[in-house]
Amino acid sequence: MREWLIEKRKATNKTQKDIAYKAQISRSLYAMIENGERNPSVSVAKKIAVVLNFDWTIFFED
């Protein structure tokens, strides 16, 4: 689980569907990323980061 990602999304009062739509990805892909089941590509990480206003490189930190 990426608790930090869930917290950032909830802080904006948005649903997974809202974030996925704005990032132009499927809700299921966003859910898998949020749950830690998949890692985003660099381009997807950047899109999500823009929507939630954070540095995209956090996805790739240990």
UniProtKB/TrEMBL annotation:
<dbReference type="InterPro" id="IPR010982">
    <property type="entry name" value="Lambda_DNA-bd_dom_sf"/>
</dbReference>
<protein>
    <submittedName>
        <fullName>Transcriptional regulator</fullName>
    </submittedName>
</protein>
<dbReference type="InterPro" id="IPR001387">
    <property type="entry name" value="Cro/C1-type_HTH"/>
</dbReference>
<feature type="domain" description="HTH cro/C1-type">
    <location>
        <begin position="5"/>
        <end position="59"/>
    </location>
</feature>
<dbReference type="Pfam" id="PF01381">
    <property type="entry name" value="HTH_3"/>
</dbReference>
<dbReference type="GO" id="GO:0003677">
    <property type="term" value="F:DNA binding"/>
</dbReference>
